[in-house]
Amino acid sequence: MTRLGGDSTGGNQPVHDGQDAPEIGTPCPNCGAHAPGLFCPACGQRTDADPRSLAFWLRDVLDETVSVNGRLPRTLGALAFRPGHLTVEWREGRRARWLAPFRLYLLSSLLFFTGSVVFPMAGSFSVSGTPSADLAMRDAVRSGQEAALGLVAPQVLILAVPFLALLLRVAFWGRGRFFVEHLVHALHVQSFWLVLLLLSFLAPLLPQPLLLALAAFVQVALWGYAGLSARRVYGVGRVRAFATSAVVLVVYTSALLVGFAGAVTAVATEPMEAVDRVEARYWVARDRWASGDTVNQAGVGLSIATEYRRLETHLWSPEVAAHTAEMLLVGDSVRDARTVAEQGLVASPGHPLLLRIAGWAALESGDDAAALRFYTRLGAMDAGTFEPRPDPRHDQDLRDARARADSLIRSDSPGGDPPRP
User: Fold this and answer.
1) Is the model more confident about 420 or about 318?
2) Fold of 294-411
3) How far is CA 400 from CA 95, 183, 301, 379, in A?
4) Among 59, 161, 168, 273, which residue is least crowded by beta carbons within 10 Å?
């Protein structure tokens, strides 16, 4: 507290008790201003706790996300139940109480793609130029395409936002002064669509009638939200808002599908082209060795096996596994060859090419009993159960291996030289 006291000149001067003197405060770590309270008066940053504390960090996250007064639940509520309201609020300058448009879009994308990982949906894009008579290879191609879709989807969707904004500007010409207004509207609309599509992850859990009802609801909600949002943001009549939004939605989704297909084709065909290249090397080497040219055979075999193994993370098929194991055998890596072949049989039990190589690898490693088991399984297969091979030369390999298996079964002992390619 401050009191008046006399001095030697007879005047009254303010005197401060050290005990009651006002706090000057400590510098704010964010802006350097004096911050005597819980918040810095200059920048608003909280100063009452150590941000490196886990408790402080968790409290901050919970306050921001699940608090009744937090911006996230308020923003999601407006996004879901008041189409166009967030865009109007942004345009009118009332922005502090809502999540920023781009931040909302990132959050919606995170929810959607997290859901796609936890609840993967069936579906694929067909890549032209990769036909295969082998079902396992087609499954591998489909898996590669779905993996490629997961890689390109976020990039395609973020690039689609300015395209949607451009469509909105053309469709509602003169209703927005700046392109950014249409861009913010596009962010809000696409954020809602991503949140709505989370319902599609329930599809595998629903019976057919409910699944059809859910599909119809999603379609109507996509179109209805676009129309209601456009009516509020652009101030147009009901008929124009819904009709124009329907046209925009058709053009947008068509372009989006083309973009997805193009991006998936570009990403997914790269490993297939690599498979074609290494397959060509494989058959060239096989033809060389069949003609008696075995110069540096082990080195070539290991080189080809290394190329195959680089492809396993992108595209796996029984043929890739069988060829990898075969080239490892040629390169005298018997243990690795047997491991690859037996792992392939776990994924594709009874695949004849893998049985052939697994038997050969077992013979090379001195495990006659295992070799007899693999060749017995191969010899017991009917010719009709052999799927057509991508290359007819495989058929000759299998005929030779089956003849070898028949011989081994009759003698009840492997013996002799292993069946070489």
Assistant:
1) 318
2) 1.25.40
3) 75, 66, 21, 11
4) 273
Q: Distance of CA 54 to CAs 49, 57, 61, 163, Å?
A: 11, 5, 11, 41
CA distance 419 to 266: 40
Q: What is the pLDDT of residues 301-322, one digit of tens each?
A: 888 888 887 776 556 678 888 8
Alpha helices per DSSP H over 203-317: 208-234, 238-290, 297-311
Q: How far is C-alpha 414 from the chain's CA centre?
A: 48
Structure confidence at residue 95 (pLDDT): 84
Is the separation of the CB atoms in 398 and 352 below 8 Å? yes
User: Any idea what DSSP says for residue 85?
Assistant: H
Whether residue 173 is predicted with pLDDT greater than 80 in this model: the reply is yes
DSSP state of 109: H
Locus of tokens 């886990």: 54
Distance of CA 30 to the CA centre of its chain: 37
What are the residue ranges of helices labelled H in 2-84?
Answer: 54-65, 71-81
**Average of per-residue pLDDT across 126-134:** 39
Least confident of 101-110, 114-123, 184-193, 203-212: 114-123
Buried b / exposed e over 389-404, threshold 16 CB at 10 Å, is bebeebeebbeebbeb
pLDDT mean over 202-211: 76
Rounded to a whole number of angstroms, the CA Rg of the chain reads 34
Higher pLDDT among residues 274 and 208, named by residue: 208
DSSP 42: T
Q: In whole angstroms, give the CA distance from residue 285 to residue 278.
A: 11
Helices (H) and strands (E) in the chain, counts: 14, 4
**Domain coordinates of the chain in residue numbers?**
2-48, 82-268, 294-411
Residue among 190, 187, 215, 189 at smallest CA distance from 201: 215
Distance CA 241, CA 172 (A): 9
- How far is the C-alpha of 141 from the C-alpha of 152, rounded, in Å? 16
